Every structure is written in C-alpha cells, then in structure tokens.
Amino acid sequence: MVISIRATQRNANPSFPTRATVSQECITAYNDLKLSKKYKFIIYKLSDDNKEIVVEEASADKDWDTFREKLINATTKSKSGAVGKGPRYAVYDFEYSLASGEGERNKITFLAWSPDDAGVMAKMVYASSKEALKRSLTGIATELQANDPDDIEYDSILKTVSKGMA
C-alpha cells in the first residue's frame, strides 16, 4: 500500500491564526525588569492585527491585586468587532521570604493568562505565539498557565513559585 502525503503551505487558510513575532519593546522592557528592577510586572498582548507581541503595560506597582485585576479585566476585539475577555502574557518579579528564615528570594515568573470565556481564535493565537515570547525572555524561573481567576490568587502562586518553601 502506498500512502501519498501532499505538502501544504503552512497557514494557507487566511482564517487560521499564525504565530506572532516579538517586538523589541518586549525584550527591552523585560531587561529593565530583570536587570535594573525598573518594573515589577509587564503585561504583553498581541497587536490588533495579531502579528506582533507588544507591551500593553509595564509597571513598578508592587500590589499583586492590581496586577491580577489587570489580567482578569483584559479585553480583546474579535475580527467581527465584538469585545470580550482576552488572553495575555505577563512577567512578574515575584519576591518572597523563605519560611525557614533563610532570607529573601525573587523569581521572575512567566504567566500565560487565557480565560475560559475568551474567544477560541484569540486563545489559539496566544497559544501558538507563547513559545516565541518565552524564548526571547531569558532568565524566566517559573512558568504558569492560568485559565480562571482562582488560578492567579496570590497564595496559590506563592506556593508554586516558592515550591512550598515560603
């Protein structure tokens, strides 16, 4: 039996999402967070044409709840113009004290936020572009995937990031 496999051009279907590229602005902001501690967190989003990952916000605000609310309330616009919940990528410089009293630690944490009620197409584009962003950001200590607001409660994140040692 002979099986013929025909090669097809990748993404020949224009409605199928493609991988986005990472803007230089994303890398610059990340280096400012990592090296100079200029920011506490960075929230990344896809550009309106879904072709590039850009910085939505870089902030020095240390309040976890402020960061969390920004993710939960993020919106995206579909091709039809409808606005709904939107996925995001984020980096947070997580600081904590070890329970054993051995001092302070910090871990740069990458968070992929893709709420369950986000549009299917938006989730697909974000999922297919995540690795490109992660590869561009060297020094990520922890990676988390969150789909529900309960997934990004401070205590559960702390437990994961500190491996239960905080």
TrEMBL record:
The ADF-H domain, residue ranges: 18-162
Domain of life: Eukaryota
SUPFAM superfamilies the UniProt entry points to: Actin depolymerizing proteins
Main location, first listed in the record: nucleus
Gene3D superfamilies with a match to the protein in the record: Severin
GO molecular function, one term: actin binding
Biological process, per Gene Ontology: actin filament depolymerization
Annotated InterPro entries: ADF-H (IPR002108), ADF-H/Gelsolin-like_dom_sf (IPR029006), ADF/Cofilin (IPR017904)
Localization: Nucleus matrix
Keyword annotations from UniProtKB, A to Z: Actin-binding
PANTHER family xrefs: COFILIN-RELATED
Family per similarity comment: Belongs to the actin-binding proteins ADF family.
Name of the molecule in the record: Cofilin
Organism listed in the record: Colletotrichum shisoi
Organism ancestry: Eukaryota, Fungi, Dikarya, Ascomycota, Pezizomycotina
Gene name linked to the record: COF1
